[in-house]
Amino acid sequence: MKACILNQRKPITERPLRYVDVDTPAPGAGEVLIKVRACGVCRTDLHVIEGELDPRKGVLPVIPGHQIVGEVVELGQGAAGIVPGDRVGVAWLHCTCGGCRFCASQRENLCENAEFTGWTRQGGFAEYVVAPADFVYPLPQALEDHQVAPLLCAGIIGYRCIRQCGIDDWNGAKLGLYGFGAAGHIAIQIARFRGADVYVCTRDRDRHQKLAEELGAAWVGGTVDPPPVKLDASIIFAPAGEIIPPALEALDRGGTLVCGGIYMSPSPPIKYELLYQERAIRSVANNTRADGRDFLEEAARTGVKTHTQLFKLEEANEALIALKHDAIRGEAVLVV
Q1: How far apart are CA 230 and CA 268, in angstroms?
Q2: Which CATH architecture has domain 165-283?
Q3: What's the CA gap between 21 and 128, in Å, rounded?
Q4: What is the CB-side half-sphere exposure of residue 21 using CA atoms within 13 A?
Q5: What is the DSSP string of 43-90?
Q6: What are the mean pLDDT values of the chain's consecutive 10-residue runs (336 residues total)?
Q7: Which of 190, 191, 183 has the alpha carbon at shortest distance from 44?
Q8: Are 147 and 305 in contact (CB under 8 A)?
Q9: For the chain, where are the alpha helices, taking DSSP H only?
Q10: What is the CATH architecture assignment of 2-150+286-335?
C-alpha cells in the first residue's frame, strides 16, 4: 500500500514525510482492517513530526494521522460489533489498558498505558490502517468522508474542552475562543447551538476571523485583544502559552480557562491577581470514547458543518506546511 511515512523528526518545511510503498497491515486479535477514504490533518501531527511530543514515547518510523474515515474490509479474530462494509472513524486515542486506576474510574483519557494513533501506533496517512474494534466509531451517514474527518479530533477535543468549561446553563453564557482553526470552527457551532455568545480572538483576518464572523461570533478580534465583555469561560486552541495571561484577564470572576492543546509553548509568569476571584486554569488531555460517542451524536443533531481544504495523500507535507502557516480555512483533509 501507499503511505506517508516519517523516518526522522524534522521541521515540516524540510518535507520529512516520504510517500512510499509499505506492507499492508494485517488485523490482529480484536482488530479490524480499514481501507482509508480520508484523513484529517491536525496540529498534533505537526507536533509528532517536528518532535514537540516526547520522542521517547513515539515510534519510528511512523505513519501519522489520527482523524481517519474508512471502510472496514477485514476482521481479526474476536473482533465484534462491526462487519465488513461499515463506515467507521478512528481517532487519537487508539486503545487503553482497561486496568489502571484511571481506566477503572472512567477516566480512560488519562490511561497510564494508552496508545495513540499516528504517534505510538501507525496512523491514517495511508491506504489502510488497523485499529481495535472497540475503539472505532460508527459515523453519521449525512456527512461526506472529508466533512466528517475533522470531527474525529478537532471536534472531539473541542467538545471535551466545552465540557471542562464549568458552565451548567449555556443559554446566554459568554465563551471565548483563542485560535480559530479546525477545533474552533466546530466548537463555536456546538456552543451557539446551546445558546452561548461566542467571542473569538485569532490573528488571521482573511481566513479565521472572517470564518468566525460567518459562523455567528458575537465579536471577533486579534489574538490578545480584550473582548468587550467579561467572559464566563474561554478555550485556548492555539499552542501559544503567551495567550494565557491576557485570556485570564478577560475572564469574569469564577471563570475557567481551558487549554485544549496537547502541546503549548511556555507561559510567561502569571500574576496572582489574574487567578484571584476563583478563576481557574484547566488542561484537556486526549478524550474518552464516551466523549467521542456523545459528540458525534450531538454534532449530527446540531447539524455541524465542517470547512475543509482537500489534498491528495501524496501532498501531506504541503498540507502540513499550510497548517503551520495558518493558511487553512477550517481543516486540511487528505483524500485517499
Answers
A1: 22
A2: 3-Layer(aba) Sandwich (3.40)
A3: 12
A4: 0
A5: HHHHHHHHT-S-TTTS-SSB-----EEEEEEEE-TT--S--TT-EEEE
A6: 97 98 97 98 96 89 98 96 96 97 97 97 98 95 91 96 97 97 96 98 88 96 96 97 97 98 94 97 96 95 94 98 93 96
A7: 183
A8: yes
A9: 43-50, 101-104, 145-148, 154-163, 182-193, 210-214, 244-249, 272-275, 289-302, 316-324
A10: Alpha-Beta Complex (3.90)
Output the nine-digit C-alpha cell for 217: 461570533
Task: Give the start-to-end residue ranges of the domains of the chain.
Answer: 2-150+286-335, 165-283
Q: Strand, helix or coil at 31? A: strand
Residue 117 is classified by DSSP as B
Kindly give, in sequence order, each residue whose CB lies less than 8 Å from that of residue 5, ignoring residues fewer than 6 positions away.
Answer: 17, 18, 20, 22, 61, 62, 63
**CA distance linking residue 132 with residue 81, whole number of Å:** 11
Report if pTM > 0.70. Answer: yes
Give just the sign of the alpha carbon dihedral 248, 178, 203, 228: negative
Residue 95, strand partner residues: 115
DSSP 168: S
